[in-house]
Design brief:
Blueprint: H1 5-19, H2 23-29, E1 58-59, E2 68-69, H3 82-88
Antiparallel strand pairs: 1-2
Length: about 100
């Protein structure tokens, strides 16, 4: 009986996808990604325009156009605003072991 390699390949891909976490979904669910709409344009800073009192939380890919820093008022002597400081100090989830 001939085996359908396409079906078994698809099944293997589906099983692998279930075991591998979708990092984009995890990041969004853990609030690690900032949607661009959440940071007002007048607040955003670049590497050149950021100052000591501005939040330096990076938004986007530094090698891509559109990259910027949060720019909100940083708390105390920190590099980040209160919101991003909370995110930076959030505990890291340990990966689940798959038996």
């Amino acid at each position: 009986m001939p085996s359908d390699t396409n079906s078994s390949g698809t099944l293997l891909a589906q099983l692998a996808a279930r075991r591998e976490p979708n990092l984009q979904i995890l990041a969004e669910s853990n609030c690690l990604l900032d949607p661009i709409e959440n940071i007002p344009l007048q607040q955003r800073r670049t590497i050149i325009t950021v100052d000591a009192s501005s939040c330096r939380w990076p938004i986007g890919d530094p090698q891509q156009e559109g990259f910027y820093l949060c720019g909100a008022t940083a708390s105390h002597d920190d590099s980040y605003c209160a919101r991003h400081m909370t995110m930076a100090r959030a505990p890291v989830m340990k990966p689940r072991r798959v038996a």
